[in-house]
Design a protein that fits this description.
The chain has about 400 residues and is mainly β. The protein has three helices and 18 strands. The strands form two sheets. Strands 1-2-3-4-5-6-7-8-9-12-13-14-15-16-17-18 form a 16-stranded antiparallel β-barrel. A hairpin with a 3-residue loop joins strand 6 and strand 7.
């Protein structure tokens, strides 16, 4: 199932500096006069560093920069199980944490570690009493000179939450259209090699190997594949445009293929090829950098190794508008997807389709140096020509966060 986190970034965490910003600041350390260099001034501003940071001796730069935050809050969701016919409403308690550690080594290599997660406890939903989503990331970056920049990323994700199984076919889906509890683990290894092509252009190639292990009714599988991406940056209202293409093969452990009537084919094991094209634009909308906008378009086409019953195409659009000033952060996010299943019939024999829409509005306010309060509203809506696909859910919460 497509999520806002998947369309934009990892869960909320401290920003990880870019390789270019690190190189600029390392070269300027010990030279306060370098603040007059526009590139240095931009890096200081992007990372919220004071000008006197340049007085730090280069020998001191290899220490760890650590950020930790704890949060808790309360909320209410009117359809916990994303049910089409019998929604269950419940108040809930939310707890979570973010932790990150970043280090620039003496040789210019960078290390980044992140742990982020949320636990939700429902008080009056008999079918689903909790949901959990946790993620850990370890990343290493370095530079070989002449614009060559390799990196390696290890990622682990644990999820125990309600997912729309009808949009997860080819991605561990339960091969049914009703929302279902998904409990499992994701392990992902992704080495990447990036090449800067002048000051404003770059290209990168990544190879991903992943393992997803799910409890029933979802299905475990291996996944492998490369991804190519190119990007261009502009300093006029700083922006970056990124075009990517990836292909991956999904190898299920034991799940059967299906014929065109939806019957299992004994003695077969399903495989799926996924082709994904995406285009993302990230930009600031004003010189003071209070306003930022991210737009992402995504197309995916999956084909199975059998009758085509598991084939589908999806078309996605994600928008995120953010305002930051004087301790306030206001964010509006939207995600729309259209799914087309050409060989999966509904009860009236027409091919199945689905529209999925998520909207999120969030407000945060810093109270001093370490405390922050937040409030959030989320709307989920699914419409389809299969009645079991259709649902809507409203979710509101508010709480407090401590950062140290």
């Amino acid at each position: 199932m497509a999520t806002l986190a998947g369309m934009f970034c990892c869960p909320a965490r401290a920003d990880e500096p870019s390789a270019q910003e690190v190189d600029v600041l390392k070269n300027a350390l010990g030279n306060p006069a370098a603040e007059s260099d526009p590139a240095v001034a931009k890096a200081l501003k992007d990372l919220n560093l004071p000008a006197d940071f340049l007085t730090v001796p280069k020998a001191s730069v290899s220490g760890w920069d650590e950020v930790f935050s704890l949060r808790t809050g309360a909320g209410y969701k009117d359809n916990v199980a994303l049910s089409s016919f019998h929604p269950e409403a419940s108040p809930y308690l939310l707890t979570g944490l973010d932790a990150s550690a970043y280090r620039i080594m003496d040789n210019g290599s960078q290390l980044f570690f992140m742990l982020s997660g949320d636990d939700t406890r429902y008080f009056s939903s008999p079918g689903f009493d909790h949901e959990d989503l946790w993620q850990g990331v370890a990343r290493w970056k370095t530079s070989f000179g002449s614009g060559w920049k390799p990196q390696m990323t290890l990622q682990y994700t644990y999820q125990d939450m309600v997912l729309d199984a009808g949009t997860a076919v080819g991605n561990g889906g339960a091969f049914s259209s009703a929302p279902t509890r998904a409990q499992g683990h994701l392990f992902r290894f992704a080495p990447e090699l990036r090449r800067d092509l002048g000051s404003n252009y770059w290209a990168a190639v990544e190879f991903m190997a992943g393992r997803r292990m799910y409890a029933a009714p979802f299905h475990s599988y291996w996944e492998f594949g490369p991804r190519l991406s190119v990007g261009v940056k502009s300093e006029n209202f700083p922006s970056e445009l990124i075009l990517g293409y990836g292909v991956s093969q999904v190898l299920y452990d034991s799940e059967n293929l299906f014929d065109r009537q939806g019957n299992r084919v004994p003695g077969t094991v399903a495989q799926v090829w996924a082709n994904i094209v995406d285009l993302q634009l990230k930009q600031y909308l004003d010189h003071a950098r209070h306003w930022s906008l991210s737009t992402k378009l995504r197309y995916e086409h999956d084909t199975d190794n059998g009758s085509g019953f598991l084939d589908y195409s999806s078309y996605g659009l994600a928008e995120e508008l953010t305002f930051k000033a004087k301790g306030w952060t206001l964010r509006a996010q939207g995600l729309y997807y259209f799914y087309d299943f050409p060989f999966e019939p509904t009860v009236n024999s027409s091919s199945r389709y689905l529209h999925s829409l998520t909207a999120i509005f969030r407000c945060e306010k810093m109270l001093g140096k370490h405390w922050k309060i937040f409030a959030e509203y989320q709307k989920d809506l699914s419409y389809s020509n299969d009645a079991t696909d259709q649902y809507q859910a409203n979710n509101v919460n508010a709480g407090i966060e401590l950062e140290f």
